[in-house]
Amino acid sequence: MSSPVEVRMIVNGTPRAGRCEPRKLLIDFLREELGLTGTHAGCEHGVCGACTILVDGVAARSCLMFAVQADGATLTTVEGLADGDELHPLQQAFHRHHALQCGFCTPGMLIAALDFLATNPEPSEAEIRDALSAVLCRCTGYQNIVKAVADAAEKMRAAGGAS
Amino acid sequence: MTGIDVDYVGRALLRREDRRLLTGAGQFVADLELSRMLHVAFVRSPLAHGRIRTVDLRAAAAAPGVVLALNGADLLRLVPPAPDAQLSLPSKWTAAVQHDFLNPQQPLLAHDKVRFVGEPLAVIVADSRYAAEDAAELANVELDPLPAVVDAAGALAAGAPILHEHFGTNRIGHFTITKGDVAASLAAAPHRLRRRFVHHRYAAMPMECRGVVAAYDARSDAMTIWSATQVVHWLRREAAHVLQMPEARVRCIALDVGGGFGVKGHVYPEDLLIPFLARRLGRPVRWIEDRHEHLLCSAHSRDQVHDVEIGFDDDGHILALDDAFTADSGAWNTLGAGIAYNTAVHLPGPYKIANYSSSATIAVTNKVPNSAYRGAGRPEAAFVMERLVDLVAAELKLEPAEIRRRNMIRADEMPYHAGLLYRDGEPIVYDSGDYPEALEKALDAVGGLVAFRRHQAEERQRGRYVGLGIGCYVEGTGVGPFEGATVRLDPGGKIYVASGACPQGQGMETVFAQIVADQWRVSPDDVVLALADTAAIAMGFGTIASRSTVTLSAAIHHASGKLRDKVFAVAANMLECAPADLELRDSSVGIVGVPGAAVSLAKIAAAARPGWDHSRPSGVDAGLEETHYWEPPTVTWSYAVHVAIVDVDPDLGRVSVARYAVAHDCGTVVNPLLLDGQIAGGTAQGLGGVLLEELVYDESGQLLTGSLMDYLVPTASDVPEIAMIHLAAPSPLNPLGVKGVGEGGAVAPPAAIANAVGDALAPFGIEINRTPIRPEELVAAIRAARSR
Amino acid sequence: MKPAKFDYHAPASVEEALALLRRYDGEARLLAGGQSLVPMMNFRLVAPAALIDLNRVAGLDYVVADGATVRIGAMTRQRAIEFSPLIAARLPLLRDAVRRIGHLPTRSRGTIGGSLAHADPAAEIPMVLRALDGQVVARGPAGERRIAAADLFVSPLTTALASDEILTEIRLPAMPDNAAHAIEEFARRQGDFALAAIAVTVAPAAGGRHTVRLATGGVGPVPQRLVGAEAILEQQGFGADTIEAAAARAAELVEPLGDPHASADFRRHLTAVLTRRAVTAASRALA
Fold first, then answer.
1. Which of B350, B698, C17, C286 is the most exposed, fewest CB within 10 Å of its CB?
2. What DSSP character marks residue B700?
């Protein structure tokens, strides 16, 4: 009902649990209950995309889900991208191409790009731009993000699709 | 310029900031988690204009989780009014510029009247934001509605409802600047044109909204404020005033800040109210602005209407320009004359105009207060001037580029005395640059004018409408009054630099590490920076107005010079030589020409310590730390030429930007990678402003664009690849030769795009003299032209 | 922007969900993909007493060919439709329409049934349902009924579904292999709701003639079939003048809405332009 409920999920490979009201947005649960503040709330109405995470392997807005809906789900957030100290190819490419300035949209950009490349490993520039229009960036004018995603796609293909 | 060897300045170093931001380890104000922290929501005005009858919070205060609920009247009894939030003007300016200003002060919560939709009426503090929003819905607000004024013309009309009744007028500011004899030279001009130009209201819209967290420590009577702000020292000053605490007991920190662009460049009521609540409740208090609040209540910008007359001769030489404009400041006037004055002095741009006058009237309206946003009055100025140049060209049937060539200040005319005063009270002198060269290079970068005109003619044969537009501007950057740097030799031999500059994504941790590394012949990795924290340096100004690279690099230079003298004195004592024989090399100080004879900076730091067994020479104080507050002589002038090629779909009114080039000069380039990022980002914002973004109010003062579904921030599909050409005429006004670049990108796109669309639609005789360029209006104009 | 409190239920079956709907007697909302409902809740524009989350209801997520009909479970994600080979083969118009809905991350959650039940006048899926003359299946206390596209959409955000009914399935006639289609949209940005959209299908028919279906999105209060314009094309073919005449007819047939994003007059104009372009593109694809 509306009283707090137990929510369990696998986040970045680790089982996590917490209690919250059913109305608690997934992004708030991640940030406040699990301390995963890498995922950012930029609009809370599904437009800006900063809060994009992977839910059961596909990108979704964590501001448009209630935490209770993710009970039993497997999530990936920006904190789960790097392999230990080794940054993910997308993270490396963002660094190399200066694809971030303030960094607020970056977690959403990275996750949206990761999901997109899983559906389209060899995209054209227009397809990258189309896909990245899922996340708003106010700092970069996007061109370095587009370059970074294209570069990362190439590196990920060269690595045999391993991410 | 200064004889500094540069090793790192000029290199495209990758950013030191990136790793934390790429891994989710950055820390923005909303990420801060403090024990027993409380959460805030506001009760906001549903009306644009009304008298407050009651704000009854009894039900809200009794709601679950609520700790405190206060309305404006309650608060007025508890807190002194906020001090003057406006940027002060130097006496040189006030003595010279004909002006009059009134100065309404926004209270922390509205208590007598509401003056815009969203103005806070009451504050709710609860144990979660969810609970606070629940309670805010329970507030019983009764307002007596008053008619609203929603534009400057309406505000200034006879009989208009008055926002601030004690003034008896909505005209809260006026000034006139003039040079030459405008009336006479206009009268004598062979050609004259009169036009009205409208630049609409849009806003910075950083992806992170604002936010404030405050914690009070009763033991030491100390307040810490974390705010997503561009101006930590300004905030500390005002908070200390409101809290009636010594500034030394108030610390203000900006953590990672998710974009600012001006909207976070002044102190807001929430910045002061949240610390007050934290002290009153003895618990940390947090307010994180949501996007709806941001659109409804954080500062907007632009919103000017210009009426201009220009006089010119048969060859297109501009003889006189007479500008009168109104600026809609919204309900309060956050920055005084700053923005409107920027518009007035930047309007002549890169052109020689002997007779010029601009008269500004600032009006209050029932809209969100206006403030600085990337460009801060300059996009409006460039739009007016650059449209006029194209109109002159059309009138004389000449190439717009040619009119620019004939009127531009040439490189051999530098430094050029513009005959006006900057807002720092100093005469405007364009210090360096080659404007015509920037024009030619920008045109070349889109394939050249000749080739374009051929292409355009071919396209028109096929019923397609392409156009080329130019937008030029000059920009005073690095404005005073000051910025400071404390430079310290850390015991480990690293160079520690503290400043009041506040980054929001510019990459300052990288750029200043490069600058400091060159000053001290160390690796950037050996530079430790403390920015955006009032505890790190006594005085600071903050990051607004394209100023930090200019002002802080100079402050670092001078503080380093002072410290170097002391370091050399200690090193000379250790190496038993004269200070004049020494040089900095590889994190050490060595004797010039003697390879092995050196002592590391770490050893020098140890030697300079106070206490026993130091190695200071007599007469040298202990410690290695120097502070310098650099006061720029005046601004240094950046400039750029933007060229856009657009494709206009005459049936849909859709404008596609096919090519876009920027040729610009910001003096010495510290980091070309980051520089390009600043220009690309600024340009994207300018493109968004002219083509997509618009804050729309209805006649009752309701904001119709209160979500990102309605306020259209450009996406990756809306922004073209931007070609950049760098000219680098070093500024003579600061040690490194840098000029500011933060804002420039956003200044010219409205002008360039409007000119390009006008050029594309020239067969229809359509002039684009207002922004934004709306598809519907283009289609209507084309249909009207076709039916003529 | 936090939603108000609600009771939360995640039934496992349609029956259970129907029982909950009855229990809350109009005060509950069904939660499908949530890409429209949750923003409205975050803005507190809606504050239902209860949410009945359909995401754990079994058996509402499928795409199957059933003779000449394609049946799609109401909780099928837009993303699943986008990447479904069956949809690509049998309903390419739907696939192309779905690609225009929001962005990939919103399509991961958004469902076909949710989009239809929400009935945003500018949404793509209602336009396709109308263009293809599909129908939906609704289940309520009295059992199952079918609602034709023409009857489903009542007004903006309002459908013929009763408050105790659940939309469970979408049925669309498979497009003939030799049919052509096109969608033309005018939106200010990628992924935005269209200010106007036109979907068209053209299928060869007997005697060298063609069957043409034209539907609007984003123009009027509900998606609309443009039968009068279809007739011109079916009778006179796809010459430039005929297409122009059909486009002009289309603009006469619509009853456009005006709002701050576009006036009614502009939407009428867009209807003509987009009809012309869509029909031209589809007729070329046919050839």
1. B698
2. T
Beta partners for residue C137, in sequence order: C146, C169
Reduced to 3 states (helix: H, G, I; strand: E, B; else coil), residue B263 is coil
Bridge partners of residue B179, in order along the sequence: B356
Contact B282, B269 (CB under 8 A): no
User: What is the tens place of the pLDDT at every residue in B110-137?
Assistant: 999 999 999 999 999 999 999 999 999 9
Domain that holds residue C68: 63-173
A5-80 is classed in which CATH architecture?
Roll (3.10)
Give dist(CA B644, CA B513) in Å, integer: 35
Q: Give the mutation candidate from C100, C192, C198, C269 for the B interface (greatest B CB count, under 10 A).
A: C269
User: Which pLDDT band holds residue B337 (cuts at 50, 70, 90)?
Assistant: confident
What backbone torsions phi and psi does residue B604 show, to the nearest 5 degrees?
A: -65, -40
- Could you give the C-alpha distances from B562 to B529, B578, B668, C155, in angstroms and in order? 18, 17, 23, 75
- Is the ipTM of this structure higher than 0.90? yes
- Listed residue (A115, A112, A98) closest to A39, CA to CA: A112
Q: What are phi and psi of C84, to 5 degrees?
A: -80, 120
Q: Is the pLDDT of residue B5 over 70?
A: no
Helix (DSSP H) and strand (DSSP E) numbers for chain C: 12, 13
In angstroms, what separates the C-alpha of C110 from chain A's closest C-alpha?
Answer: 10
AA letter at A159? A
Among B635, B670, B667, B660, residue whose Cα is nearest residue B731:
B667
User: Does C1 reside within a domain?
Assistant: no
- Mean pLDDT across B369-389: 97
Number of domains chain C contains:
3
Q: Report d(CA A45, CA B122) in Å as an integer.
A: 25
**Architecture of the domain spanning A89-158:** Orthogonal Bundle (1.10)
Q: Taking CB atoms and an 8 Å limit, are A139 and B721 in contact across chains? A: no
Give the sheet arrangement for strand C7-9, strand by strand: C7-9, C50-53, C28-31
Regarding whether C227 and C130 lie in a shared domain, the answer is no
Helix (H, G, I), strand (E, B) or coil at B203: coil
DSSP C1-18: --PPP-EEE--SSHHHHH
Using one digit for the tens of pLDDT, what is the confidence trace for A117-157?
Answer: 999 999 999 999 999 999 999 999 999 999 999 999 999 99
Between CA B193 and CA B391 the distance in angstroms is: 8
Q: Considering only CB atoms, which chain B residues are within 8 Å of C258?
A: none
| Interface contact B708-A47, CB threshold 8 A | yes
Tokens 């947090």 appear where? B286
Euclidean distance between CA atoms B258 and B58, whole angstroms: 37
Question: Taking all residues of chain B, what is their mean pLDDT, rounded to a whole number?
Answer: 96
Query: Can you point out the beta strands (E) in A4-163?
Result: 5-11, 14-20, 52-55, 58-61, 74-76
B581: Cβ contacts below 8 Å, ≥ 6 apart: B572, B591, B592
Q: Is-contact C69 C171, C-beta < 8 A?
A: yes
Q: What are the structural domains, with CATH classification, of chain B? A: 18-25+480-630 (3.30.365.10), 206-297 (3.30.365.10), 301-479+633-787 (3.30.365.10)
